[in-house]
Amino acid sequence: MTEYELGTILKEMYETGLPKKEATTYIHLFGIKYANEIQNNRLSIPEIVRASGISVAYATEVHKGVRLGKYVEVL
Hints:
Elements: H1 3-17, H2 23-33, H3 35-40, H4 45-52, H5 59-68
Helix pairs in contact: 1-2, 1-4, 2-5
């Protein structure tokens, strides 16, 4: 996947979390779910966040999710 494609997915997940007041949780979940994709292809987290159109400040939250990816399994 490209950074643009992942950005689109991130935006969708962020928007899913907004009404539940869980946007940051969904950003962490994105990082966990796509950690291998991001790491194996050496993709830029800031570029993914920019492509999503959400605040670049959320790059830190995506990074946290990616780091959790090796410890957490999404069911």
